[in-house]
Amino acid sequence: MKNIRTLFIALMACMVTFAFTSCQKDGMYNPKKKISKIYTSTDGNDRILQETWIWDGKVLSGIMLNDGDVMIAFNYDKKQLTSLTYGDEQIIYSYDGKLIDKITYMDGNEEIASYTFKHDGKFISGVDAVIDNNYMKSSRLLDVAFRSIDPTIAQTQVAQFEAAKAEAKGLYKYSDVYEYDHKNLVTLKRHDNNNNDFTYTFTYSDNLNPFYHLLAPEGLGDDVTGYGLSKNAVASYHYEDTYINTRVIDMEVTFPKLDGKYPVEETRTEKTTHTVGNLTNIYTSVTTYYYEYE
Fold it and tell me: How far, in Å, CA of 288 to CA of 223, rounded?
């Protein structure tokens, strides 16, 4: 249990994908378009089935991950999400009235991580995270639950966040502050207990986000977009830091095929510029996501 988890835990409740309105309880996801399958294709290769979504009427009851036929179960209390479960692991959602208050990751009886949310009216304004590195391990449940709101958990960021987390030794802590433009998240600022700062900025298309109001997962790719906090689909993403070295990541998103305003095909072109001293390396990747709806 002492394997240190990959980046997605460090990024975890970045927001674990939430969106909020005063007329809807957090943890209630009832989209107009219900996803049934998600495929990906990287750098022009064949598309691969990543997820199959299972619905019980209007309620999302589970997600089957294609690699290893792993089933993540969704559990509810009167249609409000209370937990995700996989084996002995569970993600527990606690609420204060209509609003999400806390998310706790449990492995058996051991509390491994907690994420406490702050609100400004109907919006999440920030989150305080505490992660126990001594017990954090690789987890398929976490892969699903915590690749959520941050629309570009890029592979190139893995080493950076692992280093930040490892530097913190026993406990890795960070605080996020969120800024919105109407119903879309535009800036995420993070400060951690290593005294590091990270900034993410987003722009949006006129297309609609099929994951809006989802309080959990939506994809397995390392650069997956999960932006349940935002009503519209992300059009671009920018990230930069000077932690260890200088790293700048830019992503542009196009929508070759739509169903009304919902994406059927979504292509993300990501460029990473990494500078160490006088040496600069540039990496580019292209990933297309294919969505099937019921």
Answer: 11
Six token digits for residue 125: 């304004």
pLDDT by residue (tens digit) across 19-28?
Answer: 343 346 787 8
> Residue 264: what pLDDT?
97
Tell me: pLDDT of 38 over 50. yes
Contact at 8 Å (CB) between 203 and 234? Answer: yes
Buried residues in 139-167 as b, exposed as e (16+ CB within 10 A): bbbbbbbbbbbbbbbbebbbebbbebbee
Contacts of residue 13, defined as CB under 8 A and 6 or more positions apart, other chains included, come to 103, 115, 117, 127, 129, 146, 148
Q: Which helix (H) or strand (E) holds 157?
A: none
Could you tell me the fold of the domain covering 7-293? Porin (2.40.160)
Cβ proximity of 105 and 143 under 8 Å: no
pLDDT, position 30 = 83
- What DSSP character marks residue 64? E
Average pLDDT, the chain: 76
Q: Where are the domains of the chain?
A: 7-293
